[in-house]
Amino acid sequence: MKKYFNLLKFSSLVLVVAFLYGFAAHRNSLRDEQEVKVYFENGDNLFVSYETVNKLLIQKLQASELEPKENINLRQLEEYLGSHEMVENAEIYLTLSGELGAIIKQRTPVLRVTCDTEAYYYDTQGKKMPLSDNYSARVPITADTISGQEDSDLITLSNIINGDEFLKKQIIAIDRIDKGESRQYELKTRVGDQKILLGDLKRIDKKIAKLKVFYKKTMLDGTYTKYKTINLKFNDQIVCEK
């Protein structure tokens, strides 16, 4: 008798589990594709909106709307979102409860190119990035473009500026000056309307350290606005012109 009772308990348990699984599957199949949870990895949705990501996902999912969500090709969705001009990387996931989510890493502009025919950004990897209707990035402006690997110094310098809180606030423009095979750079400042003669990127860390020492000293005594040119090309010294 006890044997039959245990068998009955086990059968009942199997039926309950099957019912719950079937109910969850049915509920999952009825979910609206618009229930996509979108998260932005690097801050606010500055360049691409939640609505844009949702719309892209819904358009892609419409072709397979009759399939249960667990059969969705997440890799394909990631590649689809990753091809968007404002997206650097996308991760798509499906929770146990059937919720579809997306983690978006937006591209980060570090330089804005403004020339006679067009305007656009370069991102941290030196790739062209269109301007956004949603947000205007506060990055240095240049009229120079990247034509090959030899121009990568322009992006290196832009990344250095973008990664330093002081430089990010102070530098508003970068000019590249070609002198034969040598490429040198001049920076324009927000405060003081000064020109910084940086030269090439050799010893760049020391040059930036010298620049910060200069500003720290001259801002304390209020003399920083007296200088129009700050030359960092020389070793162990700063040459300034009033």
**Biggest sheet character:** 5 strands, mixed
Percent range of helical residues? 25-40%
Distance between the termini: 104 Å
Radius of gyration: 28 Å
Structural class: alpha/beta
- Biggest sheet strand order reads 8-9-10-11-12
What is the mean predicted local confidence, pLDDT? 80
Count of distinct strands: 12
CATH class category of the largest domain: Alpha Beta
- CATH superfamily of the largest domain, by name, is Cell division protein FtsQ/DivIB
Q: What is the CATH architecture annotation of the largest domain?
A: 3-Layer(aba) Sandwich
Unreliable runs = 2-10, 14-34
Q: If you consult CATH, what is the topology of the largest domain?
A: Rossmann fold
Number of domains: 2
**String of helices and strands:** HEHHEEEEEEHHEEEHEE
Outline of this structure?
The protein has 242 residues and is an alpha/beta fold.
Structure notes:
The chain has 242 residues and is of the alpha/beta class. It has 2 domains: 31-106, Roll (Ubiquitin-like (UB roll)), CATH 3.10.20; 109-241, Rossmann fold. 35% of the residues lie in helices and 26% in strands. The chain is built from 6 helices and 12 strands. The chain has helices at 2-29, 50-61, 74-82, 152-162, 165-170, 204-221; strands at 36-40, 87-94, 100-106, 109-114, 119-123, 128-129, 141-142, 171-179, 182-189, 195-199, 229-231, 239-241. The strands form 3 sheets. The protein has a 5-stranded mixed β-sheet. A 4-stranded mixed β-sheet has the order 6-5-4-7. The protein has a 3-stranded mixed β-sheet with strand order 1-3-2. Helix 6 (204-221) links the parallel strand 10 and strand 11 (229-231). The chain is elongated, with a radius of gyration of 28 Å. The termini are far apart.
